[in-house]
Amino acid sequence: MTELSDAYRTLAALLHARHSCRAFLPEPIPRSTIEAILAAAQRVPSWCNAQPWQVIVTSGEETERLRAGLIRAVRTAPEAPDIPFPTAYEGIYRERRSVCGWQLYGAVGVERGDREGARAQMLENFRFFGAPHVALITTPAALGPYGVLDCGGYVTAFTLAAEALGVATIPQAAVAPYAPFLHRHFDIPDDRWVVCAISFGREDRDHPANAFRTERAPLSEVVEWRGTPPEG
C-alpha cells in the first residue's frame, strides 16, 4: 500500500472541504488574499503554456454595478452564450444534475411545483448569491475548446487556493448566456469568449443553502483499467 504524503493529504482535504457556496457574507476579502489566490491559480498547466485565461475581478461598487446590470439583462435580453451550452443531460448526467438541484431546493424550502420559489432561487445566481467579489474568466475564441479546457483547470486551482485561505467560492456558468451584456459591460473584445464567473467571499454558514453537500461517483463508475498496474 502506497504511503500517502502530507502534500497528498492536504490536497485531498481541500478537495473534500471545497463546495459551491450559495450564500455569502458581505465582508470584502483583502486584496493581498485575492492576489495570493490568483498567483496560485496561475501555476496550472495549459496547452503549450498558452495560459489563455484573462480574469476580471470586481469589488465593492463594481460588484454592485455588475449585479444590477446582470439582473436587468436576465429579465430583458435573450440568451446568447459565446460557447454553446450542452444540448442535453442524459442518463446518469441528468440524474446527478437533478439530485443536486433537489438537494438545493430541499435545503432552502422550495417544494415540487413551486415555480415562483424555484425562479427566485434561480435568480440568486445572477445576484452572485450576495458575494462581494466576482472573477470573470474569458479565453481567446481562436483557441476553441482547448482554451476552454485550460480555463477549467484554472477555475479548479482558483477554488482550491481560495479554500486553503478560508475563502468560499462558486464557479458559475449561469452568467455565460448573457455574454453580450458582459462584453459591453467590461468592454471585452469580440475575439474572446466568456467562459464563466467565480463568485467568492466569506461563507454565510448559517444560511440553509450552504447546508448540503453533493456526492462524487466511485472510481468504479468513471475509471476503466487497461492493463494491470503493480501493487503497492
Automatic annotation (TrEMBL):
Cofactor entry: FMN
Pfam families linked to this entry: Nitroreductase
Record's keyword terms, sorted: Flavoprotein, FMN, Oxidoreductase
MF-aspect GO terms: oxidoreductase activity
Top-rank taxon, per record: Bacteria
Domain called Nitroreductase: residue spans: 17-202
CDD domains with a match to the protein in the record: PnbA_NfnB-like (cd02136)
Keyword Signal among UniProt keywords: no
Similarity-based family: Belongs to the nitroreductase family.
PANTHER family listed in its UniProt record: NAD(P)H NITROREDUCTASE YDGI-RELATED, NITROREDUCTASE
Name of the molecule in the record: Nitroreductase
